[in-house]
Design brief:
With 308 residues, this protein is of the alpha+beta class. The protein is elongated, with a radius of gyration of 27 Å.
């Protein structure tokens, strides 16, 4: 409703400012914009949330005070929500007899989110913070250290480096300084345009934290090419060793995409119908595992051996 013009003071959520520039959806500058005209507004002192209403006023000072008041209320609501959650946890603790299971460890996967629009930021943040991987020993959650819109910057990478966080870039890029900093500090930046792909990758990372690599040093990996059902022997995976060596006496884990589906030991390892102790890179083999037969074509078997 109404007309937005260059120089108008405004407020949008917890952000305020004065319209410095208006651009339409074709990148053309405008002097004013009427109802139903999509525009980019340059001049905000912050980033409003998706769905916030932009309102024009007469006094920029009053609007700035109102924005500050809104931000204060927002912080108080977050604090109240935290307090409520804490009270619920304490109530649950009292109901359970006041005992804490110290044997159940809580671990976190730290992430930093950058996206193209605020709506995407909020959707990604909510989806990630709802994810939990757990077993009888440990529980893994996602902790969003920081989120925002725009390309990944050197500052973002520096923050991620301090907390060993994974940087998620959704429909955005990383500037040259950020990429140089990421290489120098060995920080991974994941680029995504589909939410499901990012969540699937996160599931694999959480599984890795929940079930770290097996004991020993990495010795090699093989890819499952075919499956055979051999009578009393059971299901056997026909594999090709694609890196290093597969050692029968080693510890193994089986990955399906980014997800770990099995950890254990090799039961039988054969090459050309002969039992062998080691398979080298480039060789084919058949193998099965103790207490597990749920292999699928495309699975990757990683092998780890103990140093003598």
């Amino acid at each position: 409703r109404g007309t937005l013009r260059i120089g108008d003071p405004f407020i949008a959520g917890g952000s305020s400012g004065k319209v410095r520039m208006l651009m339409n959806d074709k990148g053309q500058r405008l002097e004013e914009a009427g109802p139903s005209v999509p525009v980019q507004v340059i001049g905000m002192d912050g980033v409003p949330a998706a769905g916030d209403m932009l309102l024009v006023g007469d006094d920029e000072t009053v609007l700035r005070s109102l924005a500050d008041a809104r931000n204060k209320i927002s912080m108080e609501k977050k604090s109240a929500a935290f307090d409520t959650d804490l009270r619920k946890q304490m109530a649950a603790l009292i109901e359970s007899g006041g005992t804490i299971d110290m044997s159940r460890e809580t671990r976190e996967v730290n992430v930093l989110i950058k996206a193209d629009v605020q709506g995407s930021v909020e959707a990604l943040k909510n989806s990630l913070e709802a994810m939990i991987s757990e077993d009888e020993i440990c529980q893994v959650k996602v902790k969003v250290l920081q989120s925002g819109i725009g390309d990944v910057t050197k500052s973002d990478v520096s923050i991620a480096a301090v907390s060993n966080a994974w940087v998620i870039a959704f429909n955005v890029a990383a500037n040259m300084q950020a990429m140089d900093e990421a290489r120098t500090r060995d920080i991974e930046i994941g680029y995504y345009s589909v939410v499901y792909d990012m969540l699937e990758e996160m599931e694999g990372r959480m599984q890795e934290v929940l079930s770290p690599t097996p004991d020993g040093e990495y010795s090699g990996k093989a890819e499952v090419k075919m499956l055979f059902d051999i009578g009393k022997v059971g299901k056997v995976a026909g594999c090709a060793c694609v890196d290093g060596d597969i050692v029968k006496a080693g510890n193994v884990r089986v990955l399906r995409g980014a997800k770990i589906v099995f950890e254990g030991r090799i039961k039988t390892l054969k090459h050309l119908k002969e039992d062998v102790q080691t398979i080298n890179s480039g060789m084919e083999c058949g193998m099965n595992f103790f207490d597990w037969e749920e292999m699928e074509e495309g699975d990757v078997v990683e092998c780890y051996t103990m140093s003598k």
